Amino acid sequence: MADEFRTAQPKEYYRKFLEKDVRPDNRELGEFRPTVLNIGSISTAEGSALIKLGNTTVICGVKGELAEPKTETPKEGYIVPNVELSALCSPQFRPGPPSEQAQVLSQFVADVIKNLGNWCGCSALKNTALPTVTVDEETKKVETDFKQQNMLHLSCCPISSTCAVFDDTVLLVDPTSEEQTLATGIVTVVTDGKNICCLDKPGGSPLTDSQMRTCIERAFQRHREACKLMEDTLCSIDR
């Protein structure tokens, strides 16, 4: 009966829980989902990570390739993010070319990748080892030494956190996919632990000053938790 009610009237189903300051998955309104992190899970990638947030699993792989640098940054490499939402992930995704949602997510990752504002991405990059590359200044010949690997150094590690607004008033921290679908507003905050690197709110219900402060405070808390989990996981593996 509960499943039928949830399917037929999802908002009413949620309201019954939110009236008691609890969510259907037994979390409090401001509680993050349980998180499990595995680093180095893809042996064929230069770096990788798998993160599980509640019932949601994200896997990230890093592949390194030699390429011509961009004209505006001749001494630097660059990152090309690609978000894939395959039909195997969820019934809401369809097979075929990248969906609009996948393209929007890829662009968002690209926008914040300069600050590495992605938990799974940060973990994968922290696990990334690249071969030593040298360039002969006279012949311009590129030589790659795969025996001598160098760990990628990250100058900072920003983490993103998302909050959702339900019924224009109730603030939910770390919303599930279902909660995001029912939400009247979404806001994502990216922080490096000291500063806010990015704040994304694609329309929807406006947030009060108090709600926005809560989102930011929870984002800083999430950053501390994420960094500790990443460091503990990295220390537990041999690389």
From TrEMBL:
Protein name according to UniProt:
Ribosomal RNA-processing protein 43
Location relative to the cell = Cytoplasm; Nucleus, Nucleolus
UniProtKB keywords: Cytoplasm, Exosome, Nucleus, RNA-binding, rRNA processing
Q: Which domain of life is it from?
A: Eukaryota
* GO MF term list: RNA binding
Where the record annotates domain Exoribonuclease phosphorolytic, the positions are 31-117, 158-221
Q: Does the keyword rRNA processing apply?
A: yes
**Its principal location?**
cytoplasm
Q: Which GO terms describe its biological process?
A: rRNA processing
The answer to whether UniProt assigns keyword RNA-binding to this entry is yes
